[in-house]
Amino acid sequence: MDWLTHLIWNDLIWHNGKLFGIDWGFWKAVGWLGNAIFSSRFLVQWYVTEKKKRVVVPQAFWWLSLVGSLTFLCYSIHQQDSVFIFAYAFTWLPYTRNLMIHRQHKNAHVACPACGKSCPPQSNFCPNCGARLVAVTA
Fold first, then answer.
1. pLDDT, mean of residues 117-124
2. Is the confidence at residue 87, as pLDDT, over 50?
3. Which structural domain range is residue 26 located in?
4. Is 114 within the bounds of a domain?
5. Pick from 65, 66, 72, 63: nearest CA to 27
6. What b/e readout covers 1-20, taking b as 16+ CB neighbours within 10 angstroms?
7. In Å, how far from its chain's centre is CA 83?
């Protein structure tokens, strides 16, 4: 078993004085951090979708998208890689807009007068208790 530990540690994890064979530095860490943040958004979306048993794109998905893409942009500018600079130069726009829409929608919710639960905009009845939220006009 010692040979297996030696193989894993010396050849895969720590090789030639480098962790995973990567020459680490500040900007390399920034690039990997951006990758981790950007990639984690799919795990968040998958988790929330499974939990609610319907397809959901939570607010956290857009925050992770925004922070991850801006981190990637910083890294690509430092690397002076025009392909990646262009790839991430404008991705923050739809992420920011989706966060704005999310906030507007959240602020448009109304409190149920009967149970106090927050109800979606333009709902006529509270999904929690069934109380009337707005007067129905004829």
1. 86
2. yes
3. 2-90
4. no
5. 72
6. eeeeeeeeeeeeeeeeeeee
7. 23
